[in-house]
Design brief:
305 residues; Fructose-1,6-Bisphosphatase, Chain A, domain 1; five-stranded mixed β-sheet; globular; alpha+beta; D-Maltodextrin-Binding Protein, domain 2; 30% helix; 2 domains; eight-stranded mixed β-sheet
């Protein structure tokens, strides 16, 4: 279904929250029932399950032709995505399950997420991590779907919000989330960035990753990380940017610390990938400069013996 083009940010937030309240329990039930994980072609890092496809179908059912999402983005193409994102009308960008490998493997670093974009930039978002409060006092296990405790994060009108969840649904009203004050010395270090860049631990930065973009966003928002890096696809970045911005984090290009372009789509190539660029998510320019000094481009390995 498509919504009115003049809907308020609060209206689209309500639509995204309603989607998450359907999608998270669906994913939990399918995971508890058992899943077969496959891969999207020869790249073994691109995992896929039936739950990804089920949540993809739900995204299309809830947001209709105003949607860009991972599983069908190849059919859309860069030009059509650019035109949709540039409109004054709302365009939704979703990732059915971010962190498919930890999802299928019984770990906590996964969730469903969607952003509402307008006039070229994401303005609001909802991220649901249904098992984020997994008990780590014992061996990893998959809880019954209805008992799973998790975290809901959202951003709208410049405010970051959060609520605890059980069974994928909020158990309390959304409350304001403030930017964490403490420092940990850790930076989010996703797999794609790890392939293309190296981090000098001697500069006092240490990597931490638990799955994908959504887990990095949760770690940063809840004070486990000081900063993170972005080296991703359109649907990985759009749903987390409004949360970062609401918490007062900025986006800085590595290594020159240039500001991001005015249009989100200009961060991505023809395949809607930003893998050739690294962006730093930091509190301010000084922190970004310090982190940038600890990062090097990884050496390209020769294909010859």
């Amino acid at each position: 279904m498509s919504g009115p083009p003049d809907a308020s940010a609060q209206d689209v937030l309500a639509r995204m929250l309603a989607f998450a309240e359907e999608a998270a329990p669906l994913a939990l039930r399918m995971r508890a029932a058992g899943l077969q994980m496959t891969n999207k072609g020869p790249d073994l890092s691109q995992a896929l399950t039936e739950a990804d496809l089920a949540v993809s179908r739900l995204l299309h059912a809830r947001f209709g032709p105003d949607l860009i999402e991972e599983e069908t983005a190849d059919d859309l193409g860069h030009g059509a995505a650019a035109a949709m994102l540039a409109r004054d009308a709302w365009t939704f960008v979703g990732d059915p399950i971010d962190g498919t490998r930890p999802f299928a493997g019984g770990l906590s670093g996964w969730g469903v997420m969607v952003a509402a974009c307008r006039a070229g930039w994401p303005r609001a978002c909802v991220l649901s991590l249904p098992v984020w409060n997994e008990d780590r006092a014992g061996p990893a296990c998959i809880e019954p779907a209805e008992a799973a405790r998790g975290l809901l994060l959202a951003a709208c009108d410049g405010r970051a919000l959060w609520a605890p969840t059980r069974g994928g649904r909020p158990t309390e009203a959304l409350r304001v989330l403030e930017r964490p004050a403490r420092r940990t010395g850790h930076v989010g270090w996703l797999a794609v960035a790890a392939q293309r860049f190296t981090l000098d631990y001697g500069r006092g930065w240490f990597p931490w990753s638990e799955g994908g973009s959504i887990s990095d966003a949760a770690l940063l928002a809840t004070g486990r990380l000081d900063a993170t890096v972005v080296n991703s696809m359109l649907w990985d970045l759009a749903p987390i940017l409004p949360l970062f911005e609401a918490l007062g984090f900025g986006l800085f290009h590595w290594p020159d610390l240039a500001a991001p372009p005015a249009a989100l789509i200009d961060l991505f190539d023809a395949d809607l990938s930003g893998h050739d660029d690294l962006w730093l998510v930091c509190r301010d320019r000084a922190q970004a400069a310090d982190l940038a000094g600890a990062i090097r481009r990884a050496e390209t390995r020769s294909s010859h013996p």
